[in-house]
Amino acid sequence: EDEAFQILNEAQANRAVAEHQLNMKSSRSHVIYTYYITRTKLSDEAASDAEVTQSKLHFVDLAGSERMNKTGSTGAVMKEANYINKSLSYLEQVVI
Fold first, then answer.
1. Averages of pLDDT over each 10 residues, the chain, 96 residues
2. Pairing of strands 31-41, 17-20
3. Are 13 and 31 in contact, with CB atoms under 8 Å apart?
4. Nearest to 71 by CA among 20, 18, 19
5. What is residue 38's predicted lDDT score, i.e. its pLDDT?
């Protein structure tokens, strides 16, 4: 459990943010967390009859697309926004 929280805290610390007119802490990062969960239900009769259920959960947090005319982004923030928009466009093509 401590290791999981340590990894989450490290990911949060590495998260990139930038400020523009609409958002003081605009996420500039995409992240995917994958959790593997195993549940073992022991049988009263024998350990060999244990019921095991395994699951995998994906939590996805994507940086949002930006409209330059609304955000007023310039310089490096504008360049990042272009990369973010392009990556979201590519992701849409893969998903659809």
1. 88 80 77 89 78 91 77 83 85 79
2. unpaired
3. no
4. 20
5. 95
